[in-house]
Each structure stands twice: as C-alpha cells, then as structure tokens.
## 1
Amino acid sequence: MSQNIQSAESLVNSKVEEPKLVSNLRGIKNKLMVMSGKGGVGKSTVSANLAAALARRGKRVGLLDSDIHGPSIPTMFGIADKRPEVGEKGILPVQVADNLKVMSIGLLLDDPDSPVVWRGPAKMGAIKQFLEEVDWGVLDYLIIDLPPGTGDEPLSIVQLLGKVDGAIIVTTPQDVALTSVRKSLKFTEMLEVPLIGMVENMSGVICPHCNEEIQVFGGESVEKAAKDFNTPILATLPIEPDVSSSGDKGDVYVNDDKSIWKEKFDLIVNSVEEKFN
C-alpha cells in the first residue's frame, strides 16, 4: 500500500519532459515566415534585408534559410564559405554580426554546385533538425525564408512550430505571379497563420536621370488580392540595381545606403516592429 502511495506521489511530482523542439525555441519571441507564390520575385532579398534591418535597429535576429534546393541566403551575406560549429547546446548558426545569425543547408554543402536531391520526408527531417538542434539562443525574431509555393517546406514549418506569429508574402505586379500568390494567401488563411501583409516587389524602375519611378508591369492585381484577402500592402519596392548587386557581393548587412528603395523598405521594417512591440 505504502509503495503504491509513494509511486503515486512520485508520478505527481515528476515533471513532464517537454519536446526538444519546444524547449530549443523557447527563447524566441517572434517567429515570422517570408513566402511567395512563385520563384524569382525577390523573396529571399526581402528576407535578408528584413533580418539585416532589424539587426541594425538593435534586435536579436536569426535567419533560417529553409529553401533546401535553392539556398541563396549564405551568398547574400558573404558567408558561403563558412561552416557551422557544434557547441554544448547544439549546432551553432553562423554569426553575421553580434545580433544576427544564419542557418542554411547551403552552409553544409561541400560543393555549392551539388544539387540536393531529396524527397519530402528527407526535407522535413532537415527542417526539423534546423529548428530542434540548432542553438538559436534568445532572439527577438526568427525569420524563416521559405521556398516558393505551398508544398512540403512551408507545411512542415507550420506543423513543427505549431504557432507562427506572422507571415509576409512577396510578389511582383505581374498577373502570372498573382495567380500563384493568391494560393499563398489562402495557405496562411487555411493554416491560421497571421498575415502581416504583402510586399509588391519590382513595382517599377527608378530613372537614373530624373529619379522618377517608371512602371514596368502595370495593373492593379496586387491591390485586388490585398483587398480580397483583407491584408495591407506593406510596401511597393522598385527595381534597384544596387540592391541586387549588394546581395551578389555578399554585403547585405553592411549595405545601409540611402535610396528610394531603402526608404520604402523601411516601411516593411516599421510594420513588423509595430506589430510585435
């Protein structure tokens, strides 16, 4: 009898061990996804510059490149030749600055030209490892750069995290891009991910002579999608050659030049800070 009582007491007093993924991400205040309906719309450029801008404002930021087949974040930060180390609490993401750290499958490949030929379960396993075994530490923001579309990676992220604090969807003004982006908007709705807003990228070109913006694609498809899904357009970003070259040269973090693009991009950063402050 006394043995049964002791067993019951020990059962009551014992702590239920929480899942490793939950405990590993406990120090992260806000988890954000950056999505797009199709490739080539500048989603990773938005992710990288958002992470860099928040870090420059003093926030502690982690950036997870979850694009298994086409990782570009390491190149944008000039860390493609770096390799993560292993610490006491897990894999250490690569530090870009004191308050900005990055993890990507691209940091684990010996040959950057080697394709990652994985099916869904292998990709989900890698993403789980990035969330569960990477020592992210204490962060104000974990920004997750997703591959285009609504397939394995976005679904895995949402299912593994359980709660995503917000999503930003990047598109261009072309109707063909908007056809796909509406599916991303519907994805966030179906999975109950709070939508921070949309970013219209490549909305025009800044004339180098008169500094006026020239519309390239035209149309009002982005405005219609935003209205249909009751979400704001956070910014309309023009095509800016210097932004593209800074990513190619790997100096996204250090590049803080004043430009029309930068002024408009700050609207995105302001919206993120306003939502979570």
## 2
Amino acid sequence: MKNSKEMVMKGIFFLSACFSIVALLLIVIFIFANGVPFMLDYGFFNFIFGMEWTPTNAPASYGIFPMIIGSIYVTIGAAVVGVPIGVLTAIFMAEFCPSFLYKILKPAVNLMAAIPSIVYGFFALQVFTPLIRQYFGGNGYSVLTASILLGIMILPTVISLSESALRAVPRTYYTGSVALGATHERSIFRVLLPAAKSGIISSIILGIGRAIGETMAVVLIAGNQAIIPDSLLSGVRTLTTNIVIEMAYATGEHREALIATAVVLFGFILLINSIFLYFKNKEAK
C-alpha cells in the first residue's frame, strides 16, 4: 500500500514537471513557427536594424531597432534604480533590521509583489509623470519615468531573493569573521555578501527579466514613440509595448511582424540570462 502511494505521488510530480516543460515548448514553437518565417521573408537585418515602424504605410516598414534600443535603455535604467536599493534593503533586513521593524517591512515587500502592474502604471502616471515634467522638463512620458517605475517594480524580487540568499549563508562564516577581529559591517560586506553572491545574482537576473517583460505599466508612462531616444526625457517604445498596443487590430503581415518581435524579445531575454550565468559560473570556478 505504501509503495503504491509513493508511485502515485511520483507520477503526479513527474506529470507536473512535464506540464511545465510542455507549456514552455508550446510557447516557443508558437512564436518561432509564426515569427521566424516573416523575419526570413522580410529580411533579418531589415527587421532587426530597420529604423522605421510604419505598418499602415504602403509599402509597410517593420524596423524594430528603435524599440530594441528603447528596451535596453529602460532595462538598464531599471537596474540602476532597483538593483542597488534592492540589495542594500535585503542586507538591512537580513542583518541590521530590528525585529519589530522587520515584522512591518517583510509584509510590505510581499505586498509590493502582489500589486498589479497596471496599478503601478497608474500611480506613476499620476505622481511621477507630473513631477518629472515640473522639475526636469519634457512632457513627463519618458525613459526616465519608465526606468524609475520599473526599478520600483523589480524591488520585491531582488529584495526577497537576496535576503533569502544572505540568510542561507552558514552563520559560522559571520562568527568566524567576527572572531578574527572584523567589525559587524565588514563581516557582512566582505564575508556574507560574497558567499551569497550566487543567490543575489539570480535575484538580479529575475528582476531584470521582469523589467524587460513588463508591459502594461510601461504603456501608460513611456510615451510610446517608436524612435531612438536621445535623452532620458525622450519618449520611448519597448518591444513589449509595441506588441500589446498593436496586436488587437493587427492582421496578416502586421500580425506576423508583431510575433517576430516576440521572437526577438525571447532571444533578448535568453541572451541576458546567458551572459549573467556565464559570469556567475566563471566566478564560481
């Protein structure tokens, strides 16, 4: 009886794992089967490095280079805002935070992760956009606004995973460092932080992945201009916002171009993850 229960549970676990893999394969097959043929017909370099996105013109142009640059700018901006704040907050919560304050901060961070992205976007539209328009110039719909918002949105991911990585480091690392004469701060930054580096890097990867894939919040505050931004105050359109804005009415070649944009976005995320993992594994050796 016991063995039969174990076999049933093993089967359930196996099916769950297979479901995840099959779902991923179906997504990959769909976007590549519909997007790659268009890229080959239109011209890979014309599509990737084209400067104009005018699907309603005759003939239509489907160049996504401005949106690739826009996605890179916004992602880098989000990392600059969110990663340092997230990692430092995780260090504070793991090693410096009083217990009474931790009971408030931890639920607050978890609550941030549960807030829908459209709520973040509306908040930025009503708060960040007027402030940036007033104090920095422009119309407020810009790379800067999107970067600040996405930096805030990736905070729960970076904070939670970084804190878990720090708490997973054996406490003997810290006590040994203190016993050798190091201060509390030096033990944390020179011993615990390097030991937790693998988990912290993973949190950064996942945070950047969210920043790249975020759509609804960015639609509201980025300006949605398919141009290469020449400053932080310029409007921008990312790859994800391009898809969500036009997919509702796109047909034929236009729809295929949007699916091809998803292929590029997928490759973009894989490239970033591969670069991070390469350096992570290189340092581990």
